[in-house]
Design brief:
The chain is α/β, with parallel strands linked by helices. It has helices at residues 11-31, 50-71, 77-80, 85-107, 123-151, 164-174, 214-221, 239-247, 255-263, 273-278, 286-321, 370-378, 385-390, 404-413, 430-434, 441-456, 460-476; strands at 2-4, 7-9, 155-160, 181-187, 207-209, 225-228, 251-254, 327-333, 339-345, 395-397, 426-428. The strands form four sheets. The protein has a five-stranded parallel β-sheet with strand order 5-4-3-6-7, sandwiched between helices. The radius of gyration is 26 Å and the shape is flat.
């Protein structure tokens, strides 16, 4: 795995992104110099600065195209592996790229320069190059996945354990090929004889050997990593066998580490406190915290200025459409358990919880007004929270603040839930961009997994990544209720 500011990125996914960036850049830069598109031969262009500027333009367009691919979930294997869906999503991504490029051309016309291509008045040439680029990506995706499946370049992995928990982890490994792992099977935690497995048995259920055969299996299959997934570890961890593998240069790690790497969240139900105490992460670097605060101030102040027309519009339609105040304030739990008042535009009836008391929001909630439903879908109702960020009660990125009533309830039922309050709550967060709207204890459990992962790996790069993903969530209208 490659790490970027403590956030883990699967190596094969990173390779795919870099390769496609080079592909887009190459097609745009060299394609614009070929006849009949070129206005002049590339050989007539001065070496510097025109060529460098043209290369930077091509790279900028490539990054915009890849941002569009990401917003269409085309770097998510669960979506990208669907061959029937791939062309449709690529077409959408191409359309989004053209819209973003058109907006940038209007705002920053000098940003785009191709040394051999006169784009002004002939934008069809750039559209043609982009279309060719996306067609090339479609072909490259098929070749990329075929190459790695054919030649089995993944890091070979054995899972030590054969219980349901181990099988679930093995399934995650086998269904996440972009992570770069190749599952070879399960090793039972006893020395009992192992029956030959049927070839029809899925690889995540295949028991390929017993504990005593672990080192031999590693040598035979070229295993690079052993993942320990034992249901009961107290007094049962096979120290001798694992130490032998470790001394042979084989990586040995716990189930929780692999789970975190594959899913971008922590396994709160099975996680032991020692994993949090002795593991990496949870750093509180003063420089990172200072930069994070500067990002909060800059992003929230910019957000307030840019959203001022929308805020005035929202205030007007709320006042006209229903009785009651324009703003809605509610107690929420912040950092270190401190209670503060969160401010939003009102989207529900004034008496929404008069009879029921605090309840989870539901899909198609009858308490939400017609105007409120639109404000929630577009996230306009969140604009006043910029004020909470400026006052320091919230951060731009962090776990979403919950109501004291639900915090008390969830603290009793969910392990490690109070750890969410070790950082400032956020307007957006890792759980918000990875999971749908939370409206039950089950949803709260899933979001806690993501929140703890964020707290463990907090960094400026991670925050910027989440902000960019949030823009995609808003544009696509995901997760609103």
């Amino acid at each position: 795995m490659v790490t970027l500011s403590e956030q883990m990125i699967p190596r094969r996914k990173l390779l795919l992104m870099v390769a496609e960036c080079v592909l887009f850049t190459g097609i745009l830069f060299f394609g614009s110099s070929l006849q009949p598109l070129a206005s002049r031969p590339l050989s007539d262009v001065p070496l510097t600065p025109d060529l460098l500027r043209g290369l930077l333009t091509s790279l900028t367009v490539a990054i915009i195209c890849q941002t569009s691919l990401s917003y269409n979930d085309l770097y998510d294997w669960r979506t990208a592996q669907n061959r029937a869906e791939l062309p449709n999503r690529l077409l959408h991504a191409c359309g989004y790229s053209l819209v973003m490029l058109a907006a940038l051309v209007l705002l920053l016309p000098r940003l785009f320069y191709f040394p051999s291509l006169d784009v002004s008045g002939q934008t069809w040439k750039l559209i043609l190059l982009l279309s060719v680029s996306f067609l090339a990506v479609w072909g490259f995706r098929h070749a990329f996945h075929w190459f790695f499946y054919k030649w089995r370049f993944g890091e070979r992995v054995l899972v030590l354990g054969a219980a349901q928990e181990a099988q679930d982890l093995a399934r995650m490994i086998s269904t996440n090929p972009l992570a770069g792992y190749e599952l070879m099977g399960l090793v039972q935690e006893t020395d009992d004889p192992v029956l030959p497995f049927d070839a029809a048995v899925p690889v995540h259920q295949r028991i390929v050997g017993s504990l005593g055969q672990l080192r031999e299996l590693c040598d035979q299959e070229g295993i690079a990593r052993v993942v320990v997934s034992l249901r009961e570890r107290r007094g049962r961890v096979p120290i001798e066998q694992l130490l032998e593998c470790r001394m042979a240069g084989i990586t040995v790690e716990e189930r929780e580490t692999m789970y975190e790497r594959l899913t971008g969240k922590l396994a709160v139900e099975s996680m032991r406190p020692s994993y949090l105490i002795f593991g990496s992460g949870f750093a509180r670097d003063p420089l990172t915290l200072a930069l994070k605060r500067l990002l909060d101030i800059g992003a929230s102040f910019t957000g307030l200025l840019l959203s001022l027309p929308l805020a005035l519009f929202a205030a007007l339609v709320i006042k006209i459409s229903s009785k009651g105040p324009i703003f809605f304030t509610q107690e929420r739990v912040g950092q270190d358990g401190e209670v503060f008042r969160l401010m939003k535009f009102r989207t529900m009836r004034v008496d929404a919880e008069k009879d029921s008391g605090p309840v989870w929001a539901k899909k198609n909630d009858s308490r939400v007004t017609i105007v409120g439903r639109f404000l929630r879908l577009t996230r306009i109702d969140e604009i006043p929270q910029f004020l909470n960020i400026l006052t320091g009660k919230m951060s731009f990125v962090g776990p979403r603040p919950e109501r004291p009533h639900f915090v008390e309830q969830l603290t009793k039922s969910l392990p490690f839930y109070p750890l969410r309050h070790t950082v400032k709550p956020g307007l957006t967060g890792w759980a918000q961009v990875c999971h749908s709207y939370g409206a039950s204890v089950e949803d709260a459990t899933e979001k806690l997994r993501y929140d703890l992962y964020y707290i463990k790996n907090v960094s400026m790069m991670f925050d910027i990544n989440i902000i960019l993903r949030t823009i995609g969530v808003i544009l696509l209208g995901k997760g609103a209720r």
